[in-house]
Hints:
By secondary structure, the protein is α+β, with helices and mostly antiparallel strands.
Amino acid sequence: xxxxxxxxxxxxxxxKNNTRSPARIMGQVIFLKKWLSLLLIFLMLVxxxxxxxxxxxxxxxxxxxxxxxxxxxxGDACLPMASTTKIMTALVVLERVGLSxxxxxxxxxxxxxxxxxxxxxxxxxxxxxxxxxxxxQSANDCAVALAWYAGGESVAExxxxxxxxxxxxxxxxxxxxNPNGLSAQGHQTTAxxxxxxxxxxxxxxxxxVITGTKRYTVKGHTIVNHNKLLSxxxxxxxxxxxxxxxxxxxxxxxxxxEGAPLxxxxxxxxxxxxxxxxxxxxxxxxxxxxxxxxxxxxxxxLPLAGGGTVNAVNCDKVCGNLFQYDGSIETKVLAGPxxxxxxxxxxxxxxxxxxxxxxKISESPLVLTEAVEAxxxxxxxxxxxxxxxxxxxxxxx
Length: 397
């Protein structure tokens, strides 16, 4: 009995020893809080947006008018571009066929992998409908259907056209293997050259309308543009998204303020929406309204028909919104070979254009600073000779 009681006492004492004191519990809670805090900080760092200059891939901002690169990181690195390929697809299609052309969908366009409009073989769509599917829905099946039609029922021939267009634009590092951007060996571009493709495409009025459209209805089905910058950033006028496992997130956008466009490109950058909006905010702050010429500050001598010259000046103050203006303005005078008589001071005699980095920024009429009298008609020497011999002949008679 005594032994049993002793064992019971030992068990009770063990239980008492195993009881944690409030101080010990508090210490463990503090320890766990520290570890949880460190874990949260780690997760925040991992998920935090990367700055434009961080990580792999490429980033570039270009002046959409002059082609001047304002900022870039790995701008000349050859990289896959996913569905941003479709910018060139749309441009080549628009240059070769009409929007109202009817396209009977070929079997090879139906069921193409990836993002699709789910068109079926034998169905009929207009080129315009397929272009909206291409640029808004990023539909790979629309890309193949358009390529097949514009390439003379040959997708391979259309891809060859895309590569010829790239060469025409002076691109040396861009190569296309397909019209939709699905991963393929050698299908690549650079951020710089992709911006140049977008700049060329934005010169096409029909392309500008399509890429700037937020929603479009195709055969009763409404599609929404994947470029959400059109809705969340004031001034965005177009763009194209893209993604593949190989290329990562790709994005090309265009934004404009006060008539000055910027093109932003990211290839393989995770936080692309923020990178683009931050880049636009940064560079639009540098946009300056520059006086290119005060009124009547530009003067030129124009030749008169009867000999001599007359002076003409710009009649307007000329300004332009420019990025990183360095003063290297050029002028081009457009006027006839001669100024003819009977003109008043202030009459328009031509135009002066103001160019910056190879792009016309503005223009102004050229007006005469003085009147020009009508020339006195002088008898031609040959006529006088004819009259002399005529009189001589009449006298002999």
